[in-house]
Amino acid sequence: QVQLVESGGGLVQAGDSLRLSCAASGRTFSVYAMGWFRQAPGKEREFVAVISESGGSTYYADSVKGRFTISRDNAKNTVYLQMNSLKPEDTAVYYCAAHDQNYYSDPNSYGSWGQGTQVTVSS
User: What is the rounded (10 degree) CA torsion for 115, 46, 70, 95?
Assistant: First the structure.
């Protein structure tokens, strides 16, 4: 498995930007597609974005499309989530995860998870 550590969360105002990072260690990072998920209090974990092993393909949830950008640097074993035009409804704990198999949007398809980083957007 791969070990994952997120960073970059914080408290921002609506309309602001944040960039989350997820540093990986352990098994070879570049063999994994990597996803970002989020979970708000009282809600299920929600798919945000995924990027392919090489970084050539990305896919986003409709709720973040056009505002968030996922990217990766395999030389640095890091995946990023650039979040622009943040909204209060983006408030959640954000997790990165390494994809194992099956559907990219299903949390059960991911075998390794970070501890999460809190993002709070005030109105």
Answer: 0
